[in-house]
Write a structure and sequence with these properties.
The chain is an alpha/beta fold and 274 residues long. Helix content is 33%, strand content 19%. The radius of gyration is 18 Å and the shape is globular. It binds zinc ion (ZN) (2 copies).
Length: 274
C-alpha cells in the first residue's frame, strides 16, 4: 500500500505551469490509490526584509527573475474546492520554504497568513562571493564539484540547527541533481560525514527526513545513516511539478526505506517510522 505524497507542487508554485492544476494532481493520486497528498508550494523571496536572519549576514540575494510571491488566498480557495471534489482523498496544505533559516521573518509572515499542515524546509541556494545563489549548473561551473557539495552540507547543517519552522527536511542532497558528468559518478560515501552530521542534528530536532523521488533515489545505505542517527520518521515526496509525477517511483522508494529499517507508521496517512 502506497504512503502519502507529502511534496507536490501545483500552478500556485512560481516554477510550475498553469496547466498543472490541483484537480489533475488529486485525480492522479486517486488513480494511484494514494491515501493523501500535500500541496507544498514554493515560498521563495527576492530580497530580505529587515529582520530576516540572512539580512544580518551581510550577503545579498542573487538575481531570482522567475520567483513570484505565493498567493495564499488563491491557493487556499483552490484547496478548499479540491477537498469538496475529492472526499476520498486527504488533501493537506503546505509550503516548501526555501532557506527558511535565512528568510526567517519572511517565511513567518507567510505561515501567519494561512493554515499549513506540512512545512518543508529546503536549501536551494548557498552563498558564493557575498551573494545567495541558486545551486544549478551555473554554480557548479563556478565551484569545484566536491567543494560545492561540502559547502552545501555545511549550510544545510546551519538550516537544520536553526529554529526555522519546518517539520520535514526536503531533498537533503538537492545539489546532487546538478552534479556534472565531468566530475565522475556522484558517490554518497564521499560525503558520508556531511550526511551523518546533518542527520544527527535533524534527529535531535525531532523533524522528519524526506525521501525525494525526483532527485536521484537515495540508497539503502544513505537511509540507514538516517536510521543510525536516531531518525524517527521518513516522509515520501515526489516533488511533482506536473500531475503525472505524483507518487512517482514510490514503489522502489518504499523498498529502499524498508530495507533501511523503517516501517509504516500508525496509519496510512502517517510517515514511516523506526
Ligand atoms: Zn525543492
Ligand atoms: Zn519541491
Amino acid at each position: 500500500m502506497l504512503p502519502a505524497d507529502h511534496h507536490v507542487h501545483s500552478r500556485w508554485s512560481w516554477d510550475t505551469q498553469a496547466t498543472s492544476t490541483m484537480e489533475l494532481a488529486c485525480a492522479r493520486a486517486v488513480e494511484l490509490g494514494l491515501p493523501a497528498l500535500a500541496f507544498t508550494e514554493h515560498v521563495d523571496f527576492t530580497a530580505w526584509v529587515h529582520d530576516d536572519a540572512g539580512n544580518h549576514r551581510g550577503q545579498t540575494v542573487g538575481p531570482r527573475p522567475r520567483v513570484q510571491p505565493f498567493d495564499v488566498a488563491g491557493y487556499s480557495a483552490d484547496l478548499s474546492r479540491c477537498r469538496e471534489m475529492f472526499p476520498q482523498l486527504r488533501i493537506l496544505s503546505g509550503i516548501e520554504a526555501g532557506e527558511p533559516h535565512l528568510f526567517s521573518d519572511s517565511v513567518a509572515a507567510v505561515l501567519n497568513s494561512g493554515q499549513f499542515d506540512r512545512v518543508l524546509g529546503s536549501l536551494h541556494a548557498i552563498e558564493h562571493r557575498g551573494e545567495l545563489q541558486f545551486v544549478d549548473h551555473t554554480l557548479f561551473g563556478r565551484l569545484e564539484a566536491h567543494d560545492l557539495m561540502r559547502r552545501y552540507f555545511e549550510e544545510l547543517l546551519v538550516l537544520v540547527e536553526s529554529s526555522a519552522a519546518f517539520g520535514i527536511l526536503a531533498h537533503c542532497d538537492y545539489a546532487r541533481r546538478y552534479w556534472p558528468a565531468a566530475a565522475g559518478d556522484y558517490r554518497e560515501d564521499e560525503f558520508e560525514d556531511g550526511y551523518r552530521t546533518v542527520f544527527r542534528a535533524l534527529a535531535a530536532s525531532g523533524r522528519a527526513l524526506e525521501v525525494n523521488t525526483r532527485s536521484p533515489l537515495a540508497s539503502v545505505d544513505l537511509v540507514r545513516w538516517w536510521w543510525q542517527a536516531g531518525g524517527e520518521a521518513v516522509s515520501f515526496g515526489s516533488d511533482a511539478h506536473d500531475p503525472y509525477s505524483v507518487g512517482n517511483r514510490f514503489g522502489v522508494a518504499l523498498d529502499v526505506v524498508e530495507a533501511a529499517g523503517f516501517r509504516p507508521g500508525r496509519d496510512r496517512f502517517d510517515f514511516w517510522r523506526r
